[in-house]
From TrEMBL:
GO terms for biological process: protein secretion by the type II secretion system. Residues 33-138 form the Type II secretion system protein GspG C-terminal domain. Its main location: membrane. Coiled coil: none annotated. The chain crosses the membrane at residues 12-30. It comes from Methyloversatilis universalis (strain ATCC BAA-1314 / DSM 25237 / JCM 13912 / CCUG 52030 / FAM5). It is a single-pass membrane protein. Keywords: Cell inner membrane, Cell membrane, Membrane, Methylation, Transmembrane, Transmembrane helix. Belongs to the GSP G family. Residues 116-138 are annotated as: Disordered. GO terms for cellular component: plasma membrane; type II protein secretion system complex. This is Type II secretion system core protein G. It holds the Pfam family N_methyl.
Length: 138
């Protein structure tokens, strides 16, 4: 009595083909996915700058001026000694860091307006392109 028994399973060639297909998909989808993460950080920085601008405008309405560079964005959450009509805090929480965990750069008076508010982007260096570009209020 001789029976034909066949073992169930995948051959090495079938496994290699599947691995190649998975590798190709990862190579195609991976970069697109990670580029979206970078774009969302830039969008988050723009949204935070917009929110800080609104708080700075409210500070100006109350005090007749924007905080000085020395007072900084901290003036939005803590009363500076020079702000006699301060009605803050102007932010619900502490001044946020940019999406790359660095403080926003604030200068008043600014070179581009009454104040300059910016983030140096992903690379933390002035200038740059794409995700490494500076994000500014001007």
């Amino acid at each position: 009595m001789h029976r034909n028994t066949r073992h169930a399973g995948f051959t090495l060639l079938e496994l290699l083909v599947v691995m190649v297909i998975i590798g190709l998909l990862a190579g195609y989808v991976g970069p697109r996915f990670f580029s979206q993460i970078g774009k969302s950080e830039v969008k988050a920085a723009r949204a935070q700058i917009d929110g800080l601008e609104k708080a700075l405008d409210q500070y100006r309405l109350d005090n007749g001026r924007y905080p000085t560079t020395e007072e900084g964005l901290k003036a939005l959450t803590e009363r500076p000694s020079t702000a006699t009509k301060w009605s803050g805090p102007y932010l619900k929480k502490a001044v946020p860091l940019d999406p790359w965990e660095r403080p926003y750069i604030y200068k008043a008076p600014g070179e581009h307006g009454e104040y300059d508010l910016s983030s140096l982007g992903k690379d933390g260096q002035p200038g740059g392109t794409d995700e490494a570009a500076d994000i500014t209020n001007w």
